């Protein structure tokens, strides 16, 4: 009788499992992009600033909105095209109203969104290494996608609990990666990044007007929960925190201005970014510019 073997999960691993297989210093510069709902597009401005400064991003990790942008960049889309998509995105492309016992809306349209704009089926087709972070709502495990279907991974990473129904995959119920690590620095370092540039969109305390519906209430509960997690800071070499308090967390129509705010803050940090990279690779001058 053949010995029964344990099925190996082809789609994702836990953070602990990823750390075991990580090659330290495998990639030079890594970029961690966080969740942030409409604020997420500010990270497109960060990418613009890095490219204009000649800083090459070798690998990425993304959570929620950051997973969408990181996946787009890793797919090889030009930043100009990612900016165009970000400015023109609206709520209707990211959910369908299907109330159930597990959520107010379905995140199914996120898969369609990824397929439509990225035209990449799986991680293996990406131009740059990418880690997408989700959370197992049953165990609390931070779950990392580095292979398999890209659209499903990004959908899971974006599924804010209570708003979106969890994504059922391989016997797990997966929700927004922000519940485990909104700024995915641990995932990025486990992927093998040496220099870690982290983007945090909630670095400036936001005060909201009174909520008018349950959707806003649940979104704000998520916001205040994820902004409190700060362990990622200790493992970051540079933290970019654009001031987005003038903008509504749920207003996609301000995309152009939010992107500009992200770019402005990244440019302000650029001397430090270059200094860190030069010091880290002082004996390998071909790496930095």
Would you mind describing this structure in some detail?
The protein is built from ten helices and eleven strands. By secondary structure, it is of the alpha/beta class. α2 links the parallel β2 and β3. The longest helix is centred in the C-terminal third of the chain and has 26 residues. It is globular, with a radius of gyration of 18 Å. The protein starts with 11 loop residues before the first strand and ends in a 9-residue tail after the last helix. The relative contact order is 0.20. The N terminus is likely disordered.
Which labels suit this protein?
11 strands; alpha/beta; single chain; 9-stranded mixed sheet; disordered N terminus; 38% helix; 10 helices
Distance between the termini: 61 Å
Helix content: 25-40%
| Class by SSE composition | alpha/beta
Strand content: 15-25%
Q: Outline the biggest β-sheet.
A: 9 strands, mixed
The helix/strand series, from N terminus to C terminus, equals EHEHEHHEHEEHEEEHHEHEH
Rg over C-alpha atoms, rounded to the nearest angstrom = 18 Å
Tell me the number of helical segments per DSSP (H or I, 4 or more residues long): 10
Q: Low-confidence stretches at least 5 residues in length (pLDDT < 50)?
A: 1-7
Shape estimate: globular
């Amino acid at each position: 009788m053949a010995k029964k073997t344990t099925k190996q999960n082809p789609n994702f691993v836990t953070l602990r499992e990823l750390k075991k297989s990580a090659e330290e210093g495998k990639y030079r510069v890594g970029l961690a992009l966080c969740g942030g709902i409409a604020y997420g597009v500010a990270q497109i401005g960060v990418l613009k600033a890095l490219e204009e400064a000649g800083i090459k991003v070798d690998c990425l990790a993304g959570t929620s909105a950051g997973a969408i942008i990181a996946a787009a960049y890793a797919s090889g889309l030009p930043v100009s095209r990612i900016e165009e998509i970000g400015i023109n995105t609206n709520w209707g492309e990211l959910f369908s109203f299907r109330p159930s016992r597990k959520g107010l809306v379905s995140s199914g349209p996120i898969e369609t969104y990824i397929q439509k704009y990225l035209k990449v089926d799986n991680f293996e087709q990406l131009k740059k290494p990418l880690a997408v972070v989700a959370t197992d709502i049953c165990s609390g495990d931070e779950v990392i996608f580095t292979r398999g279907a890209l659209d499903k991974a990004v959908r899971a990473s974006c599924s804010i609990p209570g708003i979106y129904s969890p994504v059922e995959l391989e016997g797990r119920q997966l929700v927004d990666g922000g519940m485990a690590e909104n700024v995915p620095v641990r995932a990025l370092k486990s992927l093998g990044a040496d220099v870690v540039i982290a983007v945090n969109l909630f670095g400036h305390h936001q005060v909201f007007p009174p909520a008018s519906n349950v959707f806003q209430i649940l979104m704000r509960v998520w916001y205040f929960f994820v902004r409190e997690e700060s362990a990622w800071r200790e493992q970051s070499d540079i933290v970019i925190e654009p001031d987005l308090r003038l903008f509504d967390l749920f207003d996609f129509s301000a995309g152009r201005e939010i992107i500009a705010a992200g770019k402005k803050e990244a440019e302000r940090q650029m001397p430090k970014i270059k200094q860190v990279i030069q010091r880290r690779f002082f004996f390998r001058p071909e790496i930095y510019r």
